[in-house]
Specification:
The chain is an alpha+beta fold and 96 residues long. The protein has five helices and four strands, in the order βααββααβα. The model has no long low-confidence stretch (mean pLDDT 95).
Length: 96
């Protein structure tokens, strides 16, 4: 599991110009079962994506994000090996 932290490098006016395209990017990977949650950080200086994918694969995938292509955000990838979670997530994460 990966936690991908986006931090905006440009003002929100510029971020908002690419937000619809970014959301379509997200939808593609939600449909593929790779992204499981995402949203804006508070304060709105970036966002978070939670993904079920290997690190090397996500780095290539993120190059399809309009925020990456237009240098809107920088990305920090955090790897997480869950050892505990709520019962609803156990099947998704393969935890007994």
């Amino acid at each position: 599991m990966l936690i991908i932290e986006l931090t905006y490098k440009k003002p929100l006016e510029e971020v908002n110009k690419f937000l619809d395209k970014h959301c379509r990017f997200l939808d593609t990977y939600y449909s593929a079962g790779i992204f499981i949650a995402s949203g804006a950080k508070t304060p709105r200086d970036g966002g978070i994506i939670i993904a079920l994918i290997e690190r090397n694969a996500v780095e290539a995938l993120l190059k399809n994000d309009p925020f990456y292509q237009h240098e809107i955000a920088e990305y920090k990838i955090i790897e997480l090996t869950p050892s505990k979670c709520c019962n609803q997530l156990k099947p998704l994460l393969g935890l007994a």
